[in-house]
Design goal:
homodimer; 132 residues; alpha+beta; Alpha-Beta Plaits; 4 strands; globular
Chain lengths: 132, 132
């Protein structure tokens, strides 16, 4: 694996943590780091979901060890991946008070189903890396 | 982490590997296993993309060590996560001839940008597991 495991970010934050672009980490990092893959199926209606989702993305960004955030939703089904310096940083984010409240409301209101996979990233590459 | 890392699938394949539902692995598996997180930004126009994407999902499912597949695209930005028994199974899938051709065409035609994160899943849980 060559160096560019993570790309150099553009103007500060411009492509960072946004739905709609491939992650460019604000703090360039080399594996290993932690990815939290959150897949979910939404219930009907917004019920405050959009506001919460935007708030959680902003709040995550303020946490120690935060590296990046990517999200896509297609109809009811969505995938959000957050990246963290290590498992401890990801675990600390899970315990942040406002996030814990959101998780609770997610279970009761926003999600018909969800699954979390906590994973250790061992390799990362993009188109600027050697093909294959 | 309690047992239910992965949920019991419903009627064979019914909720499996589908865009639009949370993964229920066909073969129940406990971590560790491998997740390949593929994030991408599409170019304009279809140019055969939809047919290829469906074909790759079907082809992946036939590979040894395949566990599951989830995908969501929101506008140009998409996240696909495939799950494999181990890194060797994920690496073998990358080398499958038809998939290699698709990757090449992805680089030249379908994707404006992409990033691959190969990760080892260490924990997995859902709503039926104890909160927190």
């Amino acid at each position: 694996m060559s160096t560019p495991g993570l790309r150099t970010p553009g103007p500060t934050g411009s492509r960072f943590g946004q739905t709609g672009s491939v992650t460019a980490f604000e703090t360039p990092s080399e594996p290993p780091y932690t990815a939290v893959i959150f897949t979910s199926t939404r219930t009907d209606g917004d019920q405050g979901y959009a506001v919460m989702a935007a708030r959680m993305q902003a709040l995550a960004r303020e946490q120690p060890g935060y590296l990046g955030y990517e999200s896509a939703r297609e109809g009811r089904f969505g995938i959000t991946v957050s990246y963290w310096a290590d498992d401890a940083a990801a675990a600390a984010w899970k315990q942040v008070h406002e996030h814990a409240i959101a998780q609770d409301r997610g279970r009761t209101t926003w999600y018909a189903d969800y699954r979390v996979h906590v994973a250790t990233v061992t390799r990362a590459y993009g188109p600027s890396d050697a093909p294959r």
